């Protein structure tokens, strides 16, 4: 199996890499859509990481390094 990266431009699948040599014209292929990265995935990941400010200590903004990295309080 040969994997070639590409993207969907809204109408066609466009290859981002050349087809490897030795693959003759009209060779049947299987195209599988697997979104990789992109803004939608990043937004979904950020939404999963988000917490309500009700769950944070009152001094979190002032002492965030203490809570995140374990440094001494200032």
What characteristics describe this protein?
74 residues, alpha+beta, two-stranded antiparallel sheet, 2 helices, 2 strands, elongated
Structural summary, described in words:
Strands 1-2 form a two-stranded antiparallel ribbon. Helix content is 23%, strand content 8%. It is of the alpha+beta class and 74 residues long. It starts with 5 loop residues before the first strand and ends in a 5-residue tail after the last helix. It has one domain (6-69).
If you average the pLDDT, what whole number results?
86
Helix fraction, binned, reads 10-25%
Number of helices: 2
Strand content: 5-15%
Principal-axes geometry comes out as elongated
How many structural domains in the coordinates? 1
Low-confidence stretches: none
Structural class: alpha+beta
What is the N-to-C succession of helices and strands? EEHH
Largest sheet: 2 strands, antiparallel
Strand order of the largest sheet: 1-2
User: Nearest-angstrom radius of gyration?
Assistant: 23 Å
**Strands, count:** 2
């Amino acid at each position: 199996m040969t994997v070639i990266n590409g993207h969907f431009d809204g109408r066609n699948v466009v290859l981002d890499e050349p087809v490897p040599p030795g693959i003759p014209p009209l060779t049947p292929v299987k195209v599988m859509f697997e979104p990789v990265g992109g803004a939608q995935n990043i937004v979904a990941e950020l939404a999963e990481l988000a917490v309500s400010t009700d769950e944070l200590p009152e001094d979190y903004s002032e002492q965030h390094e203490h809570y995140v990295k374990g440094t001494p309080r200032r």
